[in-house]
Amino acid sequence: MSDVEEVITRVHREEWARVVATLTRRFGDLDIAEEAAAEAFATAVERWPGDGVPPNPGAWLTTTANRKAIDRIRRENKRDDKHKEAQTVYADDPPEPVGAIDDDRLRLIFTCCHPALAMESRLALTLRMVGGLTVPEIARAFLVAEPALGQRITRAKAKIKAARVPYRVPSGEDLPARVSGVLAVLYLVFNEGYLATGAGTDPVRHDLTAEAIRLTRLIRALLPEDGEVAGLLALMLLIEARRTARVSASGELVALDEQDRGAWDTALIAEGHQLVRQRLAAAAAGVAPGRYQILAAINAVHTSASDIRETEWSQVLALYDQLVRLDPSPIIALNRAIAVAELDGPEVALAAVDRLGDELSGYHAYHATRADLLRRLGRSQESRAAYGKAIELAGNTAETAYLTRRRDQQG
Amino acid sequence: MRYLISVLHDEPGLATPEEHAAIDVFNERLQAEGNWVFAGGLAAPETATVVDNRSERALVTDGPFLESKEYLAGFWIIEAPDLDLALKLAADGSKACNRKIEVRPFR
What we know:
The structure holds 2 protein chains of 2 kinds.
Chain A: H1 3-27, H2 30-51, H3 57-75, H4 81-90, H5 98-112, H6 119-130, H7 135-141, H8 146-162, H9 175-194, H10 206-222, H11 227-240, H12 243-246, H13 266-284, H14 291-304, H15 313-326, H16 330-344, H17 346-354, H18 357-360, H19 364-376, H20 380-393, H21 397-409
Helix pairs in contact in A: 1-2, 1-3, 1-5, 2-3, 5-6, 6-8, 6-9, 7-8, 9-10, 9-11, 10-11, 11-13, 11-14, 13-14, 14-15, 15-16, 16-17, 16-19, 17-19, 19-20, 20-21
Chain B: E1 2-9, H1 17-32, E2 36-41, E3 49-52, E4 59-62, E5 71-79, H2 83-97, E6 100-105
Antiparallel strand pairs in B: 1-5, 1-6, 2-5, 3-4
């Protein structure tokens, strides 16, 4: 890659959301903003190698995109007043100060993650408008056909416009719920990258985990006081830190107890621990932690042990107890049982897991957890059967490989 | 911006006196806060008549257009600056009339 191409890639990553967000505010139309931003970057790719990179690439792109948007509006020769107003009032607007533009990005995120949109639409729209991923990239990431994904984004944009989904940061009382909606979108993106499903895909989609982390960092920069944003970022960092140790050279999942802890990314762990410590301090001062903060704390306990045997399981269990009070879902109860097995033995844990059978019988991790507990109890035949069920239900190639090896080790 | 708030009803039966009272309170609030355009409750779907005059003569059919599990029981037309307020009002409306509702913007 040439130097200019590298600059363009970097500028795209850093400036895309800002350009789209600024134009959306000016023209009140996501579609115009997206298209004009894409055209502006295409113009940069065309011109910068010859003309050189402008001194302020972000401002150049915003100005260029602004012109493209006005061109489109003129071309379409819309007669309605709103567009006339856009042409006359905004055409020669001076560039906005940085603070206001940052607010625009936050507005953009809240609009893309609006609860009136279906979850799939929120994911696709956020990755396109805020993340700057192309439609083919997003379609590949979620294993959907390009036309279907394109249509999903088009429909979402049309609904936002027709139903007038506001372009604004929600006010006080609505903010926590809306932030948690945004975080749910980012966590889904991260998880899809972390446990990618589908036979033909890589077991870990680093592009998606990296994008989720990048967007969470952005939201953290915009909402530095929010504990759950910090919690989610810490959680992602502490999981991402173990990425390379989590899949073997042959493409098999490596469970936590077998991972080479020397291969963990110490910089990411340090950053994650730092965030968790900040949140623990806030909790000590009386701010009740939310689920992401507790999950991050659990991962901090795991990543603090230099060996699986040094894991402070009592702390893990105490954190799960806290989490269960907040979110009494069977999946949390299942993960709690894994800590119970370490403290009270596999028999007690198995009894707890078996109680979740009605709700979780279609979930591969339920069967995988049972299989492991049965294995530890020497009940090989039952363990084999449980591994078999887990393999049937698991969608991730590395996980299937791991479960198959474990099953075949049972007599 | 105007929104149609349709009241969906999935079982027979009109509003109870308690529901009527709650709807009245909600309507007064809509009027006081400037969101009121129009509203009305509908008689049972069996009272409907379908008319089709696209061809040479008007065809008149007894009964609702569609046999459906959910039918329109009533509606509000509200004025709201954006979908966030429309959804908030819809949530309060749903509580008041004790029914599921759909929010749809006018063009």
